[in-house]
C-alpha cells in the first residue's frame, strides 16, 4: 500500500479530503432536517409513512405538502446540484498538483459558501444572501475547472 | 502506469470499486423503472413524450402525475442523496488506509441497506422497514466520515 | 508528490479528467439556465426571491410554476441522475488500466450524448432524440461498469 499512503501524505489531497467530508456531512444533515419537519408537522409523501397516525382515510390527510418541508427539499437538491461538480472537479484538481494555499482557499470558500447557503435558505434570510452564497460556490468550482482544463486538457 | 496498477492491487480500493459499481448500477436501474412505469401507465411529463399516443389535445391527457411513478422518482432521488456522500466519503476513506475487514463490512452494509431501501420503497413494505434501511446506510457513511476526519483532518 | 504527478501523467486519467470537467461544467450551466428562466419569466419558488417585484400579496403572484422552468429542472435532475454514475464508475474504470482508445471512445460518447440530451430536452426536439441520447450515455456507463466488474471484482 506504498502509493496509497503517499497519496494521503499529500497535503492538498488531505485538505480536499477533509473539506469534502465536512461538506458532504452537511449535505447529509439535510435528510435529517427533512425527516424532522415531516414528523413534527405530520406531512408525508407515502401512505405507509403516516400509517402510525391513524387508520385508512384518517391517515390520508397527512399526505400533503408543506412550505417548510418543500424549502428543505429545495435546499437539499441545490446542495446535490452544486456539491457533485465540486466533488468531481475538486478531486481531479487536487490531483493536478495545484499550489497548497490556492487550493485550500478554494476549498474553504466553497465549504463556507455552502454552509452559508443552507443558513440563508432555511432561516430564510432576505436575498441576495442566498444568491451570493450560491455564486461564490459556483465561481470556486468554475475556477478549479478552468485551472484543470488549462493545465491538463487531453481530448 | 506503475502507480495506477498498484492502486488497483490495493484490496480495500478494489473492494470499494466493486461495491460502488454495484450500488451505482442499482441506482441507474431506477431510471429504467421510471421509464417502465411511465410507458405502461401512459404518464408523461413532456408533451413530446406522448406525441406517439395521439394528436394535439388528445395527447395532452397523458401529461399527468401518477402515484407509482412519483414513488419511483422519490426512491431515485433518495438514492442520489445518499449514494453521492457514500461515493465521496467512501473513496477518500478507502485511500486513508483502513483495515480491510472493517472497510468491507462498511461497504457491504451500505450496499445491502440501499438495495433493501429500494425493495422497501417500491413494494412498499410497512414502516419502519424503509426508515431502518435508510439509517443503516446513513450510519455507515457517517462512520467512514468520522474515521476519516479523526485520522486525516487537515484544514 | 511523486505519485500524484505520475497519476496525472497517465493518459487515460488525464482524458477522464478533461471529459468529466466538461460534462460537469455543462451540468452547472443548467443552474444558470434555471435562474435565467425564473428571472425573465418571473416564476419563483421562495417568497424572499420575489420580494423585489412587489410588496406583500402583490409579490405572492410570482410564486408559481412554469412549463419552461420545470423543463430545465427536469433536464438538470436527469443530468445529476446520469452524471453521478459516470463520475463514480468512470473514475474507477480509468484507474483499472483500460486501453486508451477504448476509454476515450467511452468518454467522448458519454459527453456527446449528454450535451445532445440537453439540446434535445431544452429545444425540445421530437422523440426519440432525447431517449436516444439518454440510452447512449446509459449504455456507455454500463459498459464501463461491466468492464470493471469483469476484471476487478472483489467482494
Automatic annotation (TrEMBL), chains A, B, C:
Molecular function terms in GO for this entry? Answer: glutathione peroxidase activity; glutathione transferase activity
| Electron transport listed as a keyword | no
Q: How does this protein sit in the membrane? A: Multi-pass membrane protein
| Keyword annotations from UniProtKB, A to Z | Acetylation, Endoplasmic reticulum, Membrane, Mitochondrion, Mitochondrion outer membrane, Transferase, Transmembrane, Transmembrane helix
Q: Name one Pfam family in it.
A: MAPEG
Known Gene3D superfamilies for this protein?
Membrane associated eicosanoid/glutathione metabolism-like domain
In its keyword annotation, does this UniProt entry include Endoplasmic reticulum?
A: yes
Recorded superkingdom: Eukaryota
Q: What is its EC number?
A: 2.5.1.18
Q: Which family does it belong to?
A: Belongs to the MAPEG family.
Q: What does this protein do?
A: Conjugation of reduced glutathione to a wide number of exogenous and endogenous hydrophobic electrophiles.
Q: How does it assemble?
A: Homotrimer; The trimer binds only one molecule of glutathione.
What's this protein's name?
A: Microsomal glutathione S-transferase 1
Q: Which organism is it from?
A: Bos taurus (Bovine)
Phylogenetic classification of the source organism: Eukaryota, Metazoa, Chordata, Craniata, Vertebrata
Amino acid at each position: 500500500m506504498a502509493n496509497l499512503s503517499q497519496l494521503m501524505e499529500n497535503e492538498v489531497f488531505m485538505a480536499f479530503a477533509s473539506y469534502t467530508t465536512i461538506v458532504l456531512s452537511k449535505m447529509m444533515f439535510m435528510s435529517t432536517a427533512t425527516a424532522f419537519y415531516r414528523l413534527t408537522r405530520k406531512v408525508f409523501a407515502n401512505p405507509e409513512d403516516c400509517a402510525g397516525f391513524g387508520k385508512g382515510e384518517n391517515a390520508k390527510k397527512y399526505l400533503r405538502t408543506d412550505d417548510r418541508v418543500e424549502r428543505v427539499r429545495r435546499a437539499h437538491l441545490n446542495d446535490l446540484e452544486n456539491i457533485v461538480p465540486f466533488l468531481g472537479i475538486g478531486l481531479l484538481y487536487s490531483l493536478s498538483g495545484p499550489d497548497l494555499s490556492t487550493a485550500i482557499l478554494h476549498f474553504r470558500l466553497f465549504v463556507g459558501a455552502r454552509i452559508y447557503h443552507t443558513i440563508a435558505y432555511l432561516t430564510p434570510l432576505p436575498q441576495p444572501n442566498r444568491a451570493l452564497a450560491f455564486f461564490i460556490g459556483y465561481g470556486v468550482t468554475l475556477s478549479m475547472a478552468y485551472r484543470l482544463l488549462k493545465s491538463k486538457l487531453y481530448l
